[in-house]
Structure formats: C-alpha cells, structure tokens
Amino acid sequence: TGTRTYPWRVFMLAGNAISLVESDAVWALAEPCRIADTSWIRPGLAVWDWWHDDNVADLGFPSGFDTRTFKAYIDFAAECGLHDVVVDAGWSDGLDLDKIKPGFDLEGLVAYGKEKGVSLVLWAPMSDLCDTQRRRRLFRRYADMGIKGFKIDFFDRDDAHIAGIVAEMAEDAAECRLL
Question: Which residue from 120, 132, 142, 179 could staple onto 149, CB 3.0 to 4.6 Å apart?
Fold first, then answer.
C-alpha cells in the first residue's frame, strides 16, 4: 500500500556473471534521478583504514588512528589514483559527531587531501543522525568543511521505519552534496 517503488524487483538470467553486471535492466526500470545536478557525484575506489586496523608498515613512525597516519593514507590514495579515504570510527570523540577527537586534525586532513586531489568520507553511527535537525546541521557542517560524504553504520535492520530513515538521510545528504 506504500508509494515507494523498488527497481530491484527484477528477475534476470544470464550465461555468466559479467552479463548480469553489464545489464541495464535495473537502471532502465528505476525512476528518473531527482537530483538535477549530479556533477558533484564522483564514484571511485577508496583507501579504508578498517581493512588493516591502522597497522601500516614502513611509514617511518608507528601507525595508528592519528593525523600522521591519515596523511600517509592520503598520499597513498593520490599515488594510486584513488579518489577517497574513508575515515572509520575513531575520528569523533565517542559517538558524538559534534566532537572531533582531540588531536585529530580533521580540517587539516581535508585541506591536505584537497591539495592531493583526495576527498575524505567519514564513518558515522546511524544513532547520531536520526534526529532530522541534528542530521541536517551535521551534514551542513561537514560539507562546509569539505567532507565528501558519510559511511553510515549500524542500521541493524531493514524494516520500513529504517528504510524511511535511509531515504531521509540520502535526501538530506544530497542537499549538502554529500555522498
């Protein structure tokens, strides 16, 4: 009885996995994009500290969740032609996205990344973004800082309520040109 459409309700058969990936069936059945200007959306590969738990060798200093290590991630991303560095849990002071961890120079990293052509995507707990006014304020704050987007975590279910929150978050993020 809802008003949403779900373009993934498609049954496709193919002789191999490549043919499924190359199919434009889902795209052709989806509703038109509601974002007028999509030029700011730049998909690509990213460096993500969670993959190796900040345990990087040969940096000339002990790696960790700190500004120096993330500068090294930005350097690596730039050298490899990667567009983004995902900054996972640990950049904020606890789960409060209003408080950047003391000593973690997020603004400096954004500026450093900009010099190198690398953007930052921040991890965020869903719980800190459920309140609409708070979410919009936080999205605007970090968009103005130069953050590319958020990797939002801990939805922990996929019912209609959460699907609605995800849709609201996506709309609010797009208004701020955040992924």
Answer: 179
